[in-house]
Amino acid sequence: MTRKLQKLPENPYQVAGYQAAIIEAPQQFGITQETLPEPGEGEVRVKIEGCGVCASTIPVWEGRDWFDYPREAGAPGHEGWGVIDAVGKGVQGFAKRERVTGLSYKAYATHDIARAEDLVKLPDFLDGYPFPGEPLGCVMNIFSRSAIKKGQTVAVVGCGFMGLLLIQLAKSAGAKVIGISRREFSLEEAANAGADHTIKLDDHYKIIEEVKKITGGNFCERVIEATGIEWPLNLSIELTAERGKLIVAGYHQDGMRTINVQMLNWRGIDMISAHERDSKNYIKGIKEAIEAIRYRHMDPFPYFTHTYSLEDIEKAYQLLTSRPDGFIKALILNQ
User: Fold this and answer.
1) Model pLDDT for residues 214-234, shown as the tens digit of each residue
2) What is the distance of C-alpha 215 from the center of its chain?
3) Among residues 32, 84, 97, 102, which is most buried (max CB within 10 A)?
4) Looking at the DSSP assignment, which residues form a beta bridge with residue 86?
5) Per-residue DSSP letter, 42
6) What is the arrangement of strands in the sheet containing 3-4, beginning at the earlier edge strand?
7) Mean pLDDT, the chain, as a whole number?
8) How far is residue 177's CA from residue 168's CA, in Å, rounded to a whole number?
9) Is 239 exposed, middle or buried (0-12, 13-18, 19+ CB in 10 A)?
10) Is 158 helix (H, G, I), strand (E, B) or coil?
11) Does residue 15 carry a pLDDT above 80?
């Protein structure tokens, strides 16, 4: 269970402080009371409504030799959204009580600080809806880098949260989609998202033969790898057609990869790492995600399957690592 690091006041909002989750040691969260920070020049303070839980943060939760503990309060929460409650000097275009999403990095908390340029206002039609902007912006950036066109065949390898949304977007672009994933539950969700075919991610050569049959021997003009694991990455190379594009959306963070460069060379495949580091591209992606939802090109809301409080954040990570049937994405919500 989540351990409280210190006794909190009955009503924490009566004091000049805020609550934050903190990873004190591997697989051990605590709740701490911190002094409420004031935004600096060009910054705003956001009263956090909620924050998504991202699979990329599993290593810091599980523990690795290169991490030091305890981590910073609120980290590694980076999928937050909420309402502005303080504005720093020089900020233009944002005001108190405006609902925003964007980039901040200590959002497992009741409050976080963000640069104004790293935020996006949420339109009225999203009132009452959770909106972790960072992963939705990632999805749109991956989709943009994929350059999917009407009539193409697209394989999505890994049908978790991002993979399912990419299936929706590929279908909205007029593509035929093959969803490939390990869990039967994920394959069912891939079909519900619009995948024309689904294949279980189990047998390397069987999958290749199935895709070859579906595509008449031509394989796929676009393949999106969304697992972050070496074997599915190499499988994705073999599923990509000549002069096709392989888009690496999975976050490969656990060491080197040995990949089939011979196949890449022989087929003339463009291999694209669809990860962004420029915050301007993230913000562009978030704005595009809002429009994609507005025009019903994608719908992320059914995929927010589990919600927890800060005090129960460990439960969210336990589900994220075990991935039982019914689980797609967890949110940490503040009351």
Assistant:
1) 999 999 999 999 999 999 999
2) 30
3) 102
4) 45
5) T
6) 3-4, 28-35, 17-25
7) 94
8) 9
9) buried
10) coil
11) no
Identity of residue 264: L
Tokens of 67: 């991490």
Q: What is the four-CA torsion angle of 136, 138, 139, 142, rounded to 10 degrees?
A: 160
The encoded tokens of residue 242 equal 């000549």
Paired with 199 in beta bridges are 180
Residue 223's nearest CA partner among 205, 206, 211, 210 is 211
Q: 283 in helix, strand or coil?
A: helix
Look up tokens 């891939």; give the residue: 190
H helix and E strand count, the chain = 9, 16
Give me the helix-helix angle, 230-239 and 204-214, nearest 10°: 30
Question: Rounded distance, CA 68 to CA 72, Å?
Answer: 10
Tokens of 222: 């676009």
Phi, psi of 29 (to 5 degrees): -95, 150
Mean pLDDT of 15-31: 92
Tokens read off for 29 = 């969260």
Per DSSP, the three-state class of 28 is strand
Query: Token pair 């004091």 is at which residue?
Result: 15
* pLDDT value for 254: 83
The model's pTM? 0.93
